Amino acid sequence: MDRRFHSAQKGSAEQVITVVSGLPRSGTSLMMQMLAAGGLEPLTDGRRGADASNPRGYFEWEKVKTLPQQPNCIAEAEGKAVKVISSLLPSLPAAFHYKVIFLERSLTEVVASQACMIQKLGAQASALAPEAMERALHAHLKQLKAALRSRREMSILWVEHQDVLRDPQRVCEGLQSFLAVALNLPAMIAQVDPSLYRQREANLLPNNRELDVSL
């Protein structure tokens, strides 16, 4: 886990909004599940239930999609944890104090997992080839990280997806330190199930990436 982060202005626990972010299929649902088990209240609406791609649920809040039009809706997340997809992070208003947990995962695995989920949903697949999709995601992340450097109201912790699976105790200890709150670490660690890690880069075949689902 890369524990480097830039810090923001201080705020009380009640004022802080904990944001779990990353690309789709980067482990954000698992992180939300871990934080909830640790004792941090999640902001969710239950509209999107568990399925084969995320058997333990998505922990999503549909209203977050309105951030570009209604940025102050995020006030409902004060003192809680909320999942915000990476592309919506720039829409978070500067009037609040955020602690952002950003999940990073191999882009090869992300693209493969996204393709598999789309296939299972019966939705139309992306017109981009996997390699082109990886380049587009890489460009998005580069641009996003540059934009976030100037967001002084945000403290950001970068967490490697593989670290969560390989050493959950160290990751959870880092999360507790970063969030500066007491968490139930054993309960958080118990949420990590490596058997759900099915889109492993080492196992992806060059010409067939739609192998299985993952966290």
Structural description of this entry:
- It contains 6 helices and 4 strands; from the N terminus they run βαββααβααα.
- The protein has 215 residues and is α/β, with parallel strands linked by helices.
- The protein has a 4-stranded parallel β-sheet.
- Strand 1 (16-22), helix 1 and strand 2 form a beta-alpha-beta unit.
- It is globular.
Topology record:
Blueprint: E1 16-22, H1 28-38, E2 81-83, E3 97-104, H2 107-121, H3 130-148, E4 154-160, H4 161-166, H5 168-179, H6 185-190
Parallel strand pairs: 1-2, 1-3, 3-4
Helix pairs in contact: 2-3
Share of residues in helices: 25-40%
N-end to C-end Cα span: 17 Å
Tell me the strand percentage band.
Answer: 5-15%
The radius of gyration computed from the alpha-carbon positions, rounded to a whole number of angstroms, is: 17 Å
Uncertain stretches of 5 or more adjacent residues: 1-13, 202-215
Task: Name the quaternary structure.
Answer: single chain
Count of β-strands: 4
Taken from the alpha-carbon principal axes, the silhouette is globular
User: What strand order characterises the main sheet?
Assistant: 2-1-3-4
Give the count of helical stretches.
Answer: 6
What is the N-to-C order of secondary-structure elements (H for helix, E for strand)? Answer: EHEEHHEHHH
Structural class: alpha/beta
